[in-house]
Every structure is written in structure tokens, then in C-alpha cells.
């Protein structure tokens, strides 16, 4: 359990940073290899931070 759980979390984290390709595969894109993907969950691209908080 102490080995498989962190491995599965790591795989999910890797897939969450990727971008979906044409055939459904996950492609690691250089501009997506950061936490900005998670920031988009809370602040959309067209909104500023104060607008997202409101």
C-alpha cells in the first residue's frame, strides 16, 4: 500500500498536466508542465484574480 498509492498519485498528477491528443493519448506539452493548469481551475483565462474571487 505504501508503494502503490504514491505511484498511482504520481500517474494521476502526470496525466493532469498533459494535454489530450487527437487519439485520446496524453501529450506532455512544455507550456503545461507547471501548476498553471491547476490555477485555471480557480481563475479562468479571461478573468482576473479579483474577478475570480468575487
Characterize this entry briefly.
With 54 residues, this protein is mainly alpha-helical.
Can you walk through the features of this model?
The protein has 54 residues and is mainly α. Helices cover 48% and strands 7% of the residues. It is built from 3 helices and 2 strands; from the N terminus they run H-E-E-H-H. The protein has helices at residues 4-17, 36-42, 49-53, and strands at residues 19-20, 26-27. A two-stranded antiparallel ribbon has the order 1-2. The relative contact order is 0.11. The model has no long low-confidence stretch (mean pLDDT 78).
Key attributes of the depicted protein:
single chain, 7% strand, 54 residues, 3 helices, mainly alpha
